Amino acid sequence: MLAREARELLGLDKIIFLPARISPHKLASPPTDGHRRAEMIAAAIVGEEGFELNTRELQREGVSSTVDTVREFLAEQPNVRFHYLIGEDSVGELHTWKDAEALVSLVQFVVLARGTGGTASVLGRCDVPVVARRIEISSTEIRRRVASGLSIRYLVPEAVAGIIARDGLYR
């Protein structure tokens, strides 16, 4: 919902979903395999105009670094202004990302929030747009509900719920 809202509010041509192969911030508790996450993204965005899945980070060895991916995109499309959508829960960790200061100069960050809109500060820059919608859905909550045997109906697209059930994810 927030990606759609960002695309519409900011007039973005498309939203590219990039699942990481290995997130440097989740080394202690690795998430579900990247290819399964890509499959769930593909299922979730089917039929959504302006949404695209890109699996380039899954093709790389080792830890995924956002700044490396952004530099690849910029080399391929030097005249495009890229926006990077980041969850409000990750903004506080941004200073720990590889080459965070460089990354902030390469893209326009957009904070996705579950509260109110406006602007936010990202590494000292206060002009970062905030796209918000009052929803209380998070990937953490979805995983918790699945692990507890609770329903996730209406929280994820039906096709994604099917993949989670089929593969016994988050149990």
What's a concise summary of this model?
This protein is an alpha/beta fold and 171 residues long.
The biggest beta sheet, please? 4 strands, mixed
Strand order of the largest sheet: 3-4-6-5
The SSE order reads: HEHEHHEHHEEEHH
Summing up helix and strand content along with how strands pair, one would put the structural category as: alpha/beta
Number of DSSP helical runs? 8
Envelope shape? globular
Kindly report the average pLDDT value: 87
Given this structure, which CATH class is correct?
Answer: Alpha Beta
CATH topology (level 3) name: Rossmann fold
Second-tier CATH architecture: 3-Layer(aba) Sandwich
CATH homologous superfamily title? HUPs
Q: What is the number of beta strands?
A: 6
Number of separate structural domains: 1
What are the segments in which pLDDT stays under 50 over at least 5 consecutive residues?
none
Helix content: 25-40%
Assembly level? single chain
Distance between the termini: 25 Å
* Estimated radius of gyration: 16 Å
SS strand fraction:
15-25%
Task: Describe it.
The chain is an alpha/beta fold and 171 residues long. Helices cover 39% and strands 18% of the residues. It has helices at 2-10, 34-45, 56-59, 66-76, 88-91, 100-106, 139-147, 158-167; strands spanning 15-17, 51-53, 83-87, 108-113, 118-122, 125-132. The strands form 2 sheets. Strands 3-4-6-5 form a 4-stranded mixed sheet. A two-stranded parallel sheet has the order 1-2. Strand 1, helix 2 (34-45) and strand 2 (51-53) form a beta-alpha-beta unit. The longest helix has 12 residues, at 34-45. The chain is globular and about 45 Å long. The mean pLDDT is 87.
